[in-house]
Amino acid sequence: MTPPPRFARLVLVTPDGALVGALPALPVATPWWQDVAPVIEAVRAAHGIEITVLRVLEIAPNPKSVKVTYLAEVAEAVAAEPWEGALDDHPLRNSYARLGGPAADLAWAKATLEQKGLTPTGPPRQVRTWNLSSLWAIPVVGQTLWLKATPPFFAHEAPLIEALAGEAVPRLLGYGDGRILMAELPGQDLYEAEVDQLFGMVDLLVGIQAKWVGREAELFGLGLPDWRAPALTAAITEVFERTAPELSTKNRGALTAFVADLPRRFADLAACGLPDTLVHGDFHPGNLRGDGEHLALMDWGDSGVGHPLLDSSAFLGRVPAEALEAVRAVWLAHWREAVPGSDPARALTLLAPIAAARQAVIYRGFLDNIEPAEHPYHAADPVDWLSRTAALVRAEPRGDSPR
Predict the structure, then answer these.
(1) Of 123, 132, 125, which Cα lies nearest the Cα of 155?
(2) pTM tops 0.85, yes or no
(3) What is the pLDDT of residue 63?
């Protein structure tokens, strides 16, 4: 669902921390709050100045539009309206959301490029910034490199991508201190993938996962989180207990029974025969990039160790209805071939509410590890995903529920 139109108000500060003031709200070409490239373009067009967006200060939604107030760095004072707010600090603020943070990230990227014998051919372009990442595009001869900075809870992404070298994943030029510099991936993000492309995406994921079966210790050594039965049971139980007051009485009842029965459900799931392995964690078409010849799986920050079909729910939820059964059949056939005698169809049925509840766990974790000003990005997600979990539990035919 496309969010309502966005208007951006900019509070400006200089590199020494001096408050300049605010620019009037401007319409922005895209509605997504973390998408800052069009904010920068709108300010450039309206005021002729260059800014670097640091973070969100306030989000004020209404049914027809959203006004997002951003803090931005400007090289020197410019004409601006008075702003009466206060700029505070917060211990959970990401380094790239602080004054001088983006400049430090770009300096690191420049030094890394120099070590590789590469020189930028133009200025870097800020693409995105929010509580989960900062993304810059840096042009060099023949390609555009990507600089990504992430919060501490995604620290395992770069080591994992390095361990996946040779697979259809981004190629690292360097990483460290929460920063990753990656080579260009050809093509475009495949949010609007054709049906034929979906099969290749499933092939790619299952091919990688099959190679990591039995290698859980290596993955934990890279810092990946544990989503196996005991750990995920505890996490789902905790997020349900914390979120229960916000749920409807009907959903609380369904989830109380679901949580109590998790040990038996996981036992039934284990009996289906599929082993734990690498889980991408956010597997959907938009996290793949391709050009018709090449295909690559990006954004491994949400990865973990658990049941391989945890990756199915987000992906299948985006498959057109007319192609759903065909994509599902290919996915299950891959696992029957990879693990002879297994029952991936039964596993997929058992796993559906677990996978939805895991999403609630992930979003609760985000909220626990980001500063309050950025909570609007995720505030509704734990309730939403637990409500979806309850709906899936209620919809289970008697023969498909755990026995």
Answers:
(1) 132
(2) yes
(3) 79
